[in-house]
Amino acid sequence: QLQASGGGLVQPGGSLRLSCAASGFRFSSFAMSWLRQAPGKGVEWISDIMNDDKTAYADSVKGRFTITRDNSKNTLYLQMNNLRPEDTAVYYCAARRYIAYDYWGQGTLVTVSS
How many helices (DSSP H) and strands (DSSP E) are in the chain? Predict the structure, then answer.
C-alpha cells in the first residue's frame, strides 16, 4: 500500500513537501514515482527515483521539485518549491518493480492559489 499526504492550499511562490508512506512490499527494491492529475486533464508523470537513488524530472517541474526517498522509513518525498497555479493537481505516488506500476497511492490535493 501507498499513502500520500502533505497536500493543501499554498500561495504562488510557496512550498510544500509531500510524503508517501509505503507498506506491504520491499520499498527499497522498487522505483518510485510522483504523478499528478490537474482538473480536467490526464495523468502527468513528474518525477522518478530509482532504487539506486538516480532521479529524473519532467521539464515542467525541473529545478523546482526534488524527489527523495528514505528506505529506512519506507517513505518517498517530493519537495515542491516556487509553486505555480498550474501545479494545482491531485498528486499520486506509485511504485514499480519493472515497467508497469505495481502500486498506486490514493492521491493528495495540492491547490496553488492566492
Answer: 0, 11
- Residue where the block lists cell 501545479: 87
Residues contacting 42, CB < 8 A, separation 6+: none
What is the per-residue pLDDT for 47?
98
Query: Residue 100: how many CB atoms within 10 A of its CB?
Result: 7
Find, among 99, 114, 108, the residue nearest to 16 by Cα.
Answer: 108
Sheet (strand 16-22) strand order: 2-5, 16-22, 75-80, 65-70
For residue 73, the model assigns a pLDDT of 97
> In this prediction, what percent of the chain has a pLDDT beyond 70?
100
Question: Which amino acid, residue 4?
Answer: A
Does the CA dihedral 84-85-87-91 come out positive or negative? positive
Which burial class, exposed, middle or buried, applies to 27 when counting CB atoms under 10 A from its CB (0-12, 13-18, 19+)? Answer: buried
